[in-house]
TrEMBL record:
Its main location: membrane. InterPro entries: COB_C, COBRA_pln. Keywords: Glycoprotein, GPI-anchor, Lipoprotein, Membrane, Signal, Transmembrane, Transmembrane helix. PANTHER family: COBRA-LIKE PROTEIN, PROTEIN COBRA. This is COBRA-like protein. Residues 215-404 form the COBRA C-terminal domain. The keyword Hydrolase does not apply. It comes from Lupinus albus.
Length: 435
């Protein structure tokens, strides 16, 4: 019995740890349902998705939201979204619902749909920015007219078993919980209204659930050592090595190679690490009061353009960033007393699009950092990052014992001695010979 309890405790701790990110401890996706009005057989609700994660985007082909109705509800109409299946609506005569499935699956509409199908913060193909990069674009919403449901806050039954793909697996959603009704300001900000009923669903991300292997890796180099530390072999798993593309000339004849799949399955350039993304950190120069780092991100995936990308890095000297040359930079302070984490992302219309594998499949920048002489050192790998995240997934770093190391300090040359010491040594040598 004790063994069973111990195993259960370990499983609980492991599952909690998987959904907890020390660099983004409060990050989650919150889905809010606001009942705006009652209808003859149900209600009209505004559903809003808030991506409160600091550096994890929802990338193309976007989010997919599902749930199970508590009773026999149907969706009469949807604005700003659509269900992937209508289901069996044969029992309805005349007015046919938009969806009759017990477990509807909803997706965002694509840009450019007619105006009468649009809703506030909709129609972005399911792409949602990270809160830390652009809060105004970290929201997605749509409207549902629900029938065969309760017509008051005492008879409405909350949906259950929420699922979120964004776009692949990795998110676990909790149960819907009734919260205080949301308040709204009119456009002239002179009147406040509120929803008739509100409930929230919170979804958290676990990289362990998303995939068995990392999706990115890190390589290292420095000006003081000719050795380049590559990504570890098979850093992202080598099970797909047979299907990788060995030559760029081969991709010309492959139909549909550039089309992203809903499960986000990559088609990779053949490498020893087999990762879709490689981040390279190069310690470039050393000055009296500053030092310079070059960061390069390379995309090895022929199926993915990263129209939104973010790089989060933990390094003790990021509290003294002086200048970032061709990326945007924002410090992240998950803990008020520690400022060692920063987020890098592309400048709009310049390098915010990380192209698919090929000649244009990379972006790079340099970072100038001021030295704190009490802590700065090149010894023992201090100049290299502690953690690296690309689009919210932690990248695999090389083993510490393979980092570029400082050359062994050589004994001082006699020519570097001060002149008076050299003269003294010369006269001592003459005296020794004559004696």
């Amino acid at each position: 019995m004790r063994l069973v309890i111990l195993v259960l405790c370990v499983l609980v701790l492991f599952s909690c740890a998987g959904a907890y990110d020390p660099l983004d401890p409060t990050g989650n996706i919150t889905i809010k349902w606001d009942v705006m009005s009652w209808t003859a057989d149900g209600y009209v609700a505004t559903v809003t998705m808030y991506n409160f994660q600091m550096f994890r985007h929802i990338v193309y082909p976007g989010w997919t939201l599902g749930w199970t109705w508590a009773k026999k509800e149907v969706i009469w109409s949807a604005v700003g979204s659509q269900t992937t299946e209508q289901g069996d609506c044969s029992k309805f005569k005349g007015n046919i619902p938009h969806c009759c499935k017990k477990t509807p699956i909803v997706v965002d509409l694509l840009p450019g749909v007619p105006y009468n199908q649009q809703f506030t913060n909709c129609c972005k193909g399911g792409v949602v920015s990270a809160w830390g990069q652009d809060p105004s674009q970290a929201i997605s919403s749509f409207q549902l007219s629900v029938g065969q449901a309760g017509t008051s806050n005492k008879t409405v039954k909350l949906p259950k078993n929420f699922t979120l793909l964004a776009p692949g697996p990795g998110y676990t959603c909790g149960p819907a919980k009734i919260v205080p009704s949301t308040s709204f300001l009119t456009p002239d900000k002179r009147r406040k209204t509120q929803a008739l009923m509100t409930w929230n669903v919170t979804c958290t991300y676990s990289q362990f659930l998303a995939r068995k292997n990392p999706s990115c890796c890190v390589s290292l180099s420095s000006f003081y050592n000719d050795t380049i530390t590559p990504c570890p072999s098979c850093a992202c798993g080598c099970q797909n090595r047979k299907n990788c593309v060995k030559s760029e000339s081969k991709i010309v004849s492959m139909v549909g190679i550039h089309t992203p799949k809903k499960d986000n399955e990559p088609l990779l350039q053949c490498t020893h690490h087999m990762c879709p993304i490689r981040v390279h950190w190069h310690v470039k120069q050393n000055y009296k009061d500053y030092w310079r780092v070059k960061i390069a991100i390379t995309n090895f995936n022929y199926r993915m353009n990263y129209s939104l990308w973010a790089l989060a890095i933990q390094h003790p000297n990021l509290n003294n960033v002086t200048q970032v040359f061709s990326f945007d930079y924002k410090p992240l302070v998950p803990y008020e007393s520690i400022n060692d984490t920063g987020m890098f992302f592309g400048m709009k219309y310049f390098n915010d699009l990380l192209m698919e594998a090929g000649p244009s499949g990379n972006v790079q920048s340099e970072v100038l950092l001021q030295k704190n002489m009490d802590t700065f050192t090149f010894k023992q790998g201090w100049a290299f990052p502690h953690k690296v995240y690309f689009n919210g997934d932690e990248c695999m770093l090389p083993p510490p014992d393979t980092y570029p190391f400082l050359p062994n300090s050589a004994p001082p040359s006699i020519l570097t001695f001060p002149p008076f010491i050299f003269s003294m040594l010369f006269f001592l040598a003459i005296w020794f010979i004559e004696s």
